[in-house]
């Protein structure tokens, strides 16, 4: 049964492509109102037009580079002025770079923490105050299975997603007695443009192509759990089982799966 989101206004960051764009479509299909944030206003405007043509659903577009703090502050203020009530926030925007730690430049590392962690926390804090005033809302943070199992060439990326998981769990517990929900989404590799930056040579994509998740199926799963008290969404299931076993037997897992851990 499809989730019904009529009357719900939901912010999606990184909405111009990949999981973000699929979330926009699935939210509109369910009758919700997508509020899209991304750097490319032309892409967002094109999506907005197609959404109206397909579903006669109004959507809103906001141009912002969430890597830039003043851009984040500006778009937050504009949205809060333009809309009386926002119901949900999906922190989807993120960036990754797969490389050995010593080979990474400081700017690459700073960018990952700025977008994956600092921007996500700032967006959550500002809109949480808004949700709290209505005693209603849902924050969905897109993390990664990499936040549970770190691998070579992903030390920084994994640490940012580990931070997202920790933040989400702590915040969820703080809000336990309210009607504001927090869900963290831990994904394996997904077929998106993320890898254009993370893996420009295509080595990792080639090695894991048979395991890659379909972004539309991910979006459906997330949308079906909006405005529910859902602790985590973990995909694929076999990877989540592996991550739980890893927590119990880390040394054995690292030895047995050494080849799989070095696919990057």
Automatic annotation (TrEMBL):
<dbReference type="InterPro" id="IPR002347">
    <property type="entry name" value="SDR_fam"/>
</dbReference>
<dbReference type="InterPro" id="IPR020904">
    <property type="entry name" value="Sc_DH/Rdtase_CS"/>
</dbReference>
<keyword id="KW-0560">Oxidoreductase</keyword>
<dbReference type="GO" id="GO:0016491">
    <property type="term" value="F:oxidoreductase activity"/>
</dbReference>
<dbReference type="GO" id="GO:0016020">
    <property type="term" value="C:membrane"/>
</dbReference>
<protein>
    <submittedName>
        <fullName>3-oxoacyl-[acyl-carrier-protein] reductase FabG</fullName>
    </submittedName>
</protein>
<dbReference type="Pfam" id="PF00106">
    <property type="entry name" value="adh_short"/>
</dbReference>
<comment type="similarity">
    <text>Belongs to the short-chain dehydrogenases/reductases (SDR) family.</text>
</comment>
<dbReference type="InterPro" id="IPR036291">
    <property type="entry name" value="NAD(P)-bd_dom_sf"/>
</dbReference>
């Amino acid at each position: 049964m499809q989730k019904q989101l009529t009357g719900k206004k939901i912010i999606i960051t990184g909405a111009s492509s990949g999981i973000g764009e699929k979330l926009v479509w699935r939210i509109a299909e369910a009758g919700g109102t997508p509020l899209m944030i991304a750097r490319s206003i032309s892409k967002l405007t094109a999506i907005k037009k197609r959404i109206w043509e397909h579903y006669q659903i109004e959507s809103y577009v906001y141009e912002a580079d969430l890597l830039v703090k003043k851009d984040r502050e500006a778009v937050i203020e504009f949205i809060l002025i333009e809309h009386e009530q926002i119901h949900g926030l999906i922190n989807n925007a993120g960036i990754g770079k797969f490389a050995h730690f010593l080979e990474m430049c400081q700017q690459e590392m700073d960018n990952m923490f700025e977008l994956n962690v600092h921007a996500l926390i700032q967006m959550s804090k500002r809109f949480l105050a808004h949700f709290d005033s209505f005693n209603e809302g849902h924050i969905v943070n897109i993390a990664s299975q990499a936040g549970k199992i770190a691998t070579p060439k992903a030390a920084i990326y994994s640490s940012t997603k580990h931070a997202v998981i920790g933040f989400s769990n702590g915040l969820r517990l703080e809000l336990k007695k309210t009607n504001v929900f927090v869900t963290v989404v831990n994904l394996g590799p997904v077929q998106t443009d993320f890898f254009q930056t993370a893996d420009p040579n295509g080595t990792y994509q080639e090695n894991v192509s048979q395991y890659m998740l379909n972004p539309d199926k991910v979006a459906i799963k997330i949308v079906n759990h909006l405005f529910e008290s859902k602790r985590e969404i973990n995909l694929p299931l076999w990877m989540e089982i592996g991550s739980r076993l890893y927590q119990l037997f880390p040394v054995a897992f690292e030895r047995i799966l050494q080849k799989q851990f070095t696919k990057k």
